[in-house]
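We modelled the chain as a single entity of 217 amino acids. Its sequence is:
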Amino acid sequence: MQILGTKNSIFNQFIGEIRDIEIQKDSMRFRRNLERLGEIFAYELSKKFDYTACEVTTSLGISEVNMLKQQPVIGSILRAGLPLHTGMLNFFDKAENAFVSAYRKHDKNGNFEIAIEYISCPDLTDKTLIICDPMLATGASMILCYKELINYGKPRHTHFVSILACEEGINNLKKSLPMDDFTLWIGAIDDELTAQAYIVPGLGDAGDLAFGNKSQY
């Protein structure tokens, strides 16, 4: 597991801003900060990938440069994952893309299950998959989305990326998925999870903050 927020960097300022209830009032800035965090995650992730030497022709000669051997597939859980996805795609600009529409389906007692309505995904066979979701609360969305996506082929390795996580979600991921097959990337870890499965102190509903409140109908 990689936790980027444990070291001092501009990364932590962006996390501080997406948590700040005053800065959150500017949805464009909130989205942009999610995007910038995605870019930093992408850079750190890129250090773990395989590279191959390529010759590049300049105006004065030939330069040998190490290039990505294979572009990843970037997968996002709609809708909150979109700005994080964009940040990743800014760096892995030739990547293939996958999208999963998942939401909490509540019953009359306030309990919920994760429901999936739509998936768009390329062939994942022997590829590197990155799944982006800003918040890792119980881990149920990540686990279910991963299990649905591998119907499109078994990735060589999967990277799960979340800006904020809690211990319960991390432990559920570790118990439910084969550790050798994935790496978890986290910005910061918060200790508490409410009865409604929201991370505390967290930041609130990332999808609403980025794109506006949704109807509860």
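As a brief sanity check on the tokenised model: The CA atoms of residues 81 and 133 lie 5 Å apart. The first strand starts at residue 2 and ends at 3.
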